[in-house]
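User: Can you predict the 3D structure for this chain?
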Amino acid sequence: MQKSVSPSEYQAAHHALANITPALSALKRLDKQSLGYDESAWAETQEFIALLDQNRAKNQSVIDRGDAQYQNRPVELINRAARRQAEISSLIEREQKALQHKHSVRDFQVAELQKKDFTADQIDRIAPPVPQSEIDASQALVAGLQAEMEAVQKFLADAPRYDVELLLGTTLYPDRDPVTEAAA
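Assistant: Here is the predicted structure, written as structure tokens:
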């Protein structure tokens, strides 16, 4: 099995090819007369052309393998990842707003009770602060969603390879069974 091509390898191969190809073409147009019939210069030029051509072939091979990977990419998983990315953004925003709403409701209740001269103890009994356990749970949920978002973004940016292992620990990882996890 051939080694997969990473995005940086693929981009580097394109960059190299874009620079090597015109140089190689220019060098191949040289003839002995262009080099003043200097046999040594001609031999060195031919060696350099051969070296550049090997490098061009190596980079073309990387591009070809990358293109093949891209053609065989997991399209359905990529589409699910793109949808999940948008979903995660909404879930994070909703969770943050829900916690902020709880704080805002309490702040409003406190202000109203203070206007009626309730003491701090009375206010805490009537409108208790948001429990730290709820705050911690909300922050943990957001942190988990943000970690999943990072993994999904890395996967989507991993063209042409699309390494599924980048989704490990997410709801998109192929070996996860959401039904079994929900029952647990």
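Residues 7-71 form one domain. The chain has two domains: 7-71, 75-183.
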